[in-house]
Design a protein that fits this description.
The complex is a heterodimer.
Chain A lengths: L26 H57 L13 H17 L3 H49 L7 H25 L4 H24 L3 H18 L16 H8 L3 H44 L7 E2 L1 H5 L5 H4 L11 E2 H14 L5 H15 L11 H12 L5 H6 L6 H29 L4 H4 L6 H23 L7 H37 L12 H10 L4 H18 L8
Antiparallel strand pairs in A: 1-2
Helix pairs in contact in A: 1-2, 1-3, 2-3, 3-5, 4-7, 5-7, 5-8, 6-8, 8-11, 8-17, 13-15, 15-17, 15-18, 17-18, 19-20
Chain B lengths: L2 H82 L9 H77 L2 H5 L1
The chains are: A mainly alpha, B mainly alpha.
């Protein structure tokens, strides 16, 4: 028997026991979790910090704004104060007041700001911008003021120069010529320095010099020629002869003009261009003519006044009654220095002088004035005779018809002296005196009214009449009418017709005004053109350009275009008011 | 120094200290995780050592087993051949065969037991790994949840802080809602 053999088929596994564990703890997750846990607290602290930081920044911003505001205000105040300061040269140079004041403002603001560097830095940046802007603005103002002060000084100096050189030097013309040369040479040196420095324009300087020389020549020539028009013509001839001499021509001695003491005047004219010199002489000639005419008028006026006194004295002679008494005041009203002509015995009681003494005083005066004509002598004698026979020229009571007639004439302003004289015997003495006095009174009133009428017509103003450059047309026309009127009134007083009636005065005034109107218009136009030219010349440096056609609109345009209106405000107002008052309010149209 | 400047400065310092503290804690946690991972890796070293012992023992068994099979399958055939040639090669008895069978069976059981042990050991390790994974997942999930909660809280605080700033800059609630 075969025993079965058991053979195992099991085989031991080749695998190793156990296995590697792949699980790993992730440290990053845990670390992250720890960080996240803390982040809550961190966030809270951060938010508190952010809030505090925001509030801190707000506070810093507020401080910065306040400091900037304070600095801006301080700079503005400093700028304003310094712009009004008289120490112009110490603002940016010298004591450097601007730097001193702005540094103090800056330091004060920085003290208020505290220590935050960023805030201080921001402030300094903004402050620098403000300071620079204000500095340049102020520098512009200061420069303009310095320039204006310089111009004022130059103007004053020039004015003084004109005054010094305007003496005609009649006694020592050579000394004046020397002074003229020395002064102008000094001025030329100063101007050359300014031109070299670039502070003056050579063209402007040349024009200003010519103007200065012209003014000197005008003053000297006017003073020399005075009221003698012949001298002006002689001076013109001398200029021409001087030209011939300068050209090397021989001029005979007898043709040489005789200008006693006038060589300086001639020299000032020679220093001008010929056309300017002729203009100066033409003006001097015009003035001389005016002076001559004025002298003649004054002489005539004095004569008329004397005639007036004589006529009044003659008229008054017949007024005094031998048996009545009068006050010396009555005599003084028409007779200057009446006491001088009164008989000595009348001095005892000057308030009660006899009519005969009053007549004696008048007769003495008329004798002294050589004014007793044969006619008047005859009248005196006749009166004496009449009085000697106790004949009175007056009625006890006026004739009503005559009185009414004269009164009616008086009311319409047509009562004449001859009417009263002719009706003398029909009037009482009181009525006669009343009408005679009314003639004088009404004449005076009519003349006054006529003057006011002329004044209104030509817009003559006593205030502007004081200014030689203003209202020349009005002045000339008004003076002309008044002078003619007064002459006519005086003539009539001296004539047998007696004083003019108001009607006659009014008519004469109207005629005179009509005669003057054309001349007035022409003169006004000439003045207007001269005024516009003068303004354009005077303020040419500010770019003013007034047209003849519409200067007021041009003036407004100029003013509105100015960067700094404050400096020209007064000039603007003055030019405008002058143009309106002198021309446009008078109805002038170019 | 204004009160707000002082608060701002204080907040910055506190924030710095908080950051440092948080970083310290985070580094500690990272260190712990590293220690944990290292211990698991070190366990693999032990495991490999044990595997080497088992493999070596198994190798000896296999050697012995191979010798036996050689004796039985190769030498026995030779001896049968010789016996057939006239040589008296017979040896062994039925008892011996039975003993061999018994040994053979014993060996099979040992092998199967060994294989079973190995499989159980592997299952145990898988079990342990699964447990570890679960533990770690729970731990990481907790950390993530905590992080997310903190993130939400932080967002809320941030919103409140920004709202406070806005309210102040707007001039107060009255100005906002008027």
């Amino acid at each position: 028997m075969r025993i079965p053999v058991f053979r195992t088929r099991a085989a031991a596994t080749q695998e190793a026991p156990g296995r590697s564990i792949q699980a790993r703890m992730r440290g990053d997750v845990l670390a992250q979790a720890e960080l996240q846990k803390v982040s809550v607290g961190q966030e809270m602290v951060a938010q508190i910090g952010e809030y505090a930081k925001m509030r801190y920044k707000e506070a810093e911003e507020l401080k910065l704004n306040e400091a900037l505001l304070s600095a801006e205000e301080g700079i503005r105040t400093a700028s304003r104060d310094l712009s009004r300061s008289s120490q112009l040269y110490n603002i940016f140079e010298g004591e450097n007041l601007w730097d001193q004041q702005t540094s103090a403002i800056r330091d004060q603001a920085l003290d208020a700001l505290g220590g935050n560097r960023f805030t201080r830095q921001k402030f300094l940046e903004r402050y620098g911008q403000m300071e620079v802007t204000s500095r340049f603005q102020l520098r512009g103002v200061v420069d303009r003021k310095i320039e204006a002060a310089k111009q004022a000084a130059i103007t004053a100096r020039n004015e003084q120069m004109v005054v010094d050189l305007s003496d005609p030097g009649l006694t020592d013309p050579a000394a004046m010529i020397e002074k003229y040369n020395a002064t102008l040479a000094g001025m030329t040196v100063d101007q050359a320095r300014s031109v070299k420095n670039g502070t003056a324009n050579p063209t402007v300087v040349q024009a200003a010099n010519l103007k200065l020389k012209k003014r000197i020549a005008e003053n000297v020539a006017s003073a020399y020629i005075g009221s003698d028009p012949i001298l002006a013509a002689t001076m013109l001839g001398a200029l021409e002869i001087q030209d011939q001499i300068d050209l090397g021509e021989d001029v005979p001695k007898d043709e040489m003009p005789a200008l006693r003491g006038g060589s300086y005047a001639l020299y000032t004219l020679q220093n001008l261009p010929r056309d300017e010199a002729i203009n100066v002489l033409a003006d001097a000639l015009t003035n001389a003519n005016k002076f001559a005419a004025l002298e003649e008028k004054m002489r005539q006026r004095a004569e008329a006044a004397e005639k007036d006194v004589i006529q009044n004295a003659k008229n008054r002679y017949f007024y005094y009654q031998p048996d009545e008494t009068y006050s010396i005041i009555d005599l003084n009203r028409f007779l200057p220095n009446a006491l001088k002509y009164l008989p000595k015995e009348a001095f005892a009681d000057v308030e009660n002088i006899k009519g005969t003494d009053m007549r004696t005083a008048i007769e003495t005066y008329l004798d002294a004035s050589n004014a007793i004509t044969p006619d008047f002598r005859e009248k005196i004698n006749k009166l004496d005779e009449e009085e000697n026979v106790s004949f009175s020229p007056y009625r006890e009571k006026s004739d009503p018809k005559t009185y009414d007639e004269l009164f009616a004439y008086k009311n319409i302003g047509d009562l004449r002296y001859t009417d009263v004289e002719d009706a003398k015997r029909e009037l009482s003495r009181e009525d006669y005196v009343y009408f005679i006095n009314s003639l004088e009174t009404e004449e005076e009133e009519a003349v006054s009214a006529a003057k006011r009428y002329a004044q209104a017509t030509f817009q003559y103003d006593e205030q502007t009449a004081l200014d030689p450059d203003m209202g020349r047309a009005s002045k000339a026309a008004f003076y002309s009418v008044v002078a003619e009127l007064e002459r006519a009134v005086a003539d009539r007083r001296l004539s047998a017709q007696g004083p003019m009636t108001p009607t006659e005065i009014n008519q004469l005034t109207r005629n005179l005004i009509t005669d003057q109107k054309d001349f007035f218009d022409q003169q006004l136009r000439q003045d207007y053109i001269g005024t516009i030219d003068r303004y354009n010349d005077l303020y040419g440096g500010t770019n003013i350009n007034l047209s003849y056609e519409n200067p007021l609109a041009d003036l407004d345009t100029w003013y509105s275009g100015l960067a700094d209106q404050k400096t020209q405000e007064a000039n603007y107002a003055r030019i405008k008011s002058t143009l309106k008052r002198e021309y446009f309010d008078k109805g002038f149209k170019f | 120094m204004s009160i707000f400047a002082a608060i701002s400065l204080g907040a910055q310092l506190i924030g710095g200290f908080q950051s440092r503290s948080a970083a310290n804690r985070a580094s500690k946690k990272a260190q712990q995780a590293a220690e944990f991972n290292a211990s698991i890796i070190e366990r693999d070293i032990d495991l490999l050592e044990r595997q080497r012992g088992i493999i070596n023992a198994n190798f000896l068994v296999q050697q012995e087993r191979a010798e036996q099979e050689f004796e039985r399958d190769v030498q026995a055939v030779a001896r049968s051949g010789f016996a057939y040639g006239g040589f008296d090669m017979s040896q062994g008895t039925p008892m011996e065969v039975l003993r061999n069978n018994a040994r053979e069976f014993e060996y099979q059981k040992s092998v199967e037991r060994f294989n079973n042990q190995i499989t159980n050991l592997q299952i145990t390790d898988a079990q342990e790994e699964a447990e570890l994974n679960a533990q770690l997942a729970r731990m990481e999930g907790g950390a993530t949840a905590a992080g997310l909660r903190a993130q939400g809280t932080r967002s809320l605080i941030s919103s409140l802080g920004q709202a406070a700033q806005f309210t102040y800059q707007a001039g107060g609630l009255k100005e906002i809602f008027k």
